Amino acid sequence: MATLQISSSLFRSFFLTLCLFVIPSLSSDSDPLQDFCVGDLKASPSINGFPCKSAVSASDFFYSGLGGPLDTSNPNGVTVAPANVLTFPGLNTLGISMNNVELAPGGVNPPHLHPRATEVGTIIEGSVFVGFLTTNNTLFSKVLNAGEVFVIPRGLVHFQWNVGQVKARMITAFNSQLPGAVVLPSTLFGSNPEIPNAVLTRAFRTDVTTVHNLKSKFAV
Fold first, then answer.
1. Which InterPro entries match (predicted)?
2. Which pLDDT band, with edges at 50, 70 and 90, does 56 fall under?
């Protein structure tokens, strides 16, 4: 009985120790080890971002790049102004970033995913149809108006569509300094090198002519 109790205690201790190592790894970015670390974008990034700048000033902690209006005269009718570590180095190691997203009437932020972050956003103006897809192909969607909020779980495919008659604007935030974006149409049909036509024709159950036509629209 004593041996069993000791083994049980050792197992609980091992399990709790394991949790201490595993649970922090579930966060999107590593925890910072200092008050701040303004990124030196001229240096090569490490596993937790960029090395710290040696000389820091107040301007490193303020950013004006989320203002508008943005030019949405492009095929998708959407423009994103990011405040991530690449545009706002003060975010380095802090595990957070934001976007200003503007959509022309009828504009679409095409299906995409963020591999390193959960996204939360609020509609500033306009009416936006927001949707995301789960791993079992269930669509969750709703038309949101100014003041309403949405959340997109990390790594799930999602999109936004301006269903109003005027420009729409959203502010989105991420629990990563650089959430990344895999935009499905351009990733699949505009990759370099190209995905073989045989793969795309079989995957989309279509023909080579259609694949060539789609690739021509996303050629770099």
1. Cupin_1 (IPR006045), Germin (IPR001929), Germin_Mn-BS (IPR019780), RmlC-like_jellyroll (IPR014710), RmlC_Cupin_sf (IPR011051)
2. very high
